[in-house]
Amino acid sequence: MPNTPSTPDRDNLPKRNLMDHVLQPPSYGWQDEENNLIIPTSRQIFHEFLFRLNILRTKKNWLAFFGWARVLLLIPCFVLFLFHYFSFYLLGIAFLYGMVIMGTHGTIWYHRYCTHGAYTFRNNFWRFITRNLTINVVPEEIYVISHHVHHAKSDEPGDPYNASAGFLYCFLADVNHQPISVDLTEAEYARVLKLMEHTGVHANTYRQYKKWGSIANPTRTIVGWLLNWAFWGAVFYWLGGPALFFTLFGAAGFWAIGVRTFNYEGHGKGKMRHRDGTDFHRKDLSINQLWPGYVAGEWHNNHHLFPCSARSGFLNYQMDLAWCYIKFMNRIGAVSAYRDSKHLFLAEYHQPYLDSKKAEVVI
């Protein structure tokens, strides 16, 4: 019987850069042989999207399928609000909940805490409260791991929502580009878990990960979602009957779709759109925008400059509702520590800019 070459133990190989392979690459790839960004056609993007949503093909598609299943369940709520319960009063409530509350919570929870650890909760109780402040729509795992890659490779090949590849590339990124790789070694999986351990997400064992292709445990994830929706559904129905129920669940669905457009817009639609005196970080295409800044505290260029800051609204006009919540929680003792980089921003970037403008006037 011929000898079969032994398979090397990948855990004993030299460490690879985790950010290079922690995400599952799309069938069209991240980059070509010359390291140029591959820009897929719309047909390729949709084909990949449907392929990765197919849970009949493999159960490892469950998390991507689950994420969009929730969105599809919310769409009828939005339709009922528009065509059966609509009033300008409810429209105002829908705007407040869908744009401001959902948007700000996304910045507070997914962005500044889960991904960047910009602040620390005093105990798990306050973490649980903050996590469930709104209707649960986005899986933490899909957001967090891919966002670490986004910062490591911002606007470069491998960035899961690279705006230079177009709107669809970003809009469907949560399915096509953001799920974690299903081929991590046990040592690599342990490193990935460290990026999520503070979030409270109950992680699969390595054996379970190999079965399900995810950090999140399906049973716990689905039960947590059902409890979250049941709680908020009961609260909304008690406060305002079916009209408020469908209004707010519909607003959550509107946000869930709208938030998928942000990174395309927040990185200048793939173009260099920096403005002097506003966008001080020039190492990528991120820009500060008034709308996401005011409704969600997402001053994106500032955030890329100081990603681990609990505040990103650094200038006087840059209202930051997410920071207001974090600071309030600190005042009442729910948040024990936070990072605030405003003083560094003013000293290292804004004041030198003001000095340079004054020098130009003098000359």
TrEMBL record:
Provide the Fatty acid desaturase domain boundaries.
Answer: 90-307
Q: Pfam families per the record? A: FA_desaturase
According to the UniProt record, one GO cellular component term is: membrane
The compartments listed are: Membrane
Q: What GO MF terms are annotated?
A: oxidoreductase activity, acting on paired donors, with oxidation of a pair of donors resulting in the reduction of molecular oxygen to two molecules of water
Q: Which UniProt keywords apply?
A: Fatty acid biosynthesis, Fatty acid metabolism, Iron, Lipid biosynthesis, Lipid metabolism, Membrane, Oxidoreductase, Transmembrane, Transmembrane helix
Give the UniProt family note: Belongs to the fatty acid desaturase type 2 family.
Put simply, this protein is called Fatty acid desaturase domain-containing protein
